[in-house]
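User: Hey, quick favor. My workstation is busy. Could you predict this chain's structure for me?
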Amino acid sequence: MAGQIIAAGGGGFSAITNDLALERYILGQSNNSQLPRVCLLATATGDSDSYIEKFYRAFNSLNCRPIHVPLFKQTPDLESTLLAQDVIYIGGGNTKSMLAVWREWGVPDILHQAWSRGIILSGSSAGAICWFQQGITDSWANRLEVMECLGWFPGSCCPHYDAEPERQPTYHHFLKTGEAQPGYGIPEWSALHFKGDQVFKAISSRADATVYQLTVENGLIKEVPLKMERIS
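Assistant: No problem, here it is.
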């Protein structure tokens, strides 16, 4: 069974709007069509209470059984808890700190087991870039950086591609200098859906949103728009 990962550029349950199209899409990929079990890892926010509350508010309105697993308070047995889920959702926040904590707790290996077993892995922002070789992150104050991530997918990923004015030019600069490998720019309310290590489709709940594949040719940025599937 090819593992599935749904990597969103931003938006979703933590935003002010009530657009839960991405969440519905993610739950719809589960093999459990009755009442899928979905677990939040909010490590990138330091297990923020307000972020976790938003997760429950959103997912309790959907047809699922939501839980969260803390890594900054008393932590349950991670392997048995995570591998019992149908969907695992990785929240946004500080990617560098999230990966450091994950590695201390052995989370990447458990998530890889989950992926290989067909558990849907998903996430937004930090929860999108973590799967790639490199991510464009604002983990550092006042600047964007390229950081090494889990490396399950080759290349780089830049979330919030249409939402923050510095994202596109900074990502383009990193690509031109070779600091960042070719990759994807994912806008708000949009996601890349991977099956195995291949892009299956690009999705968005917004009519004007486009995910781009970016490369450098003769010193110039080449943006190739992906065919989008609109979700609701």
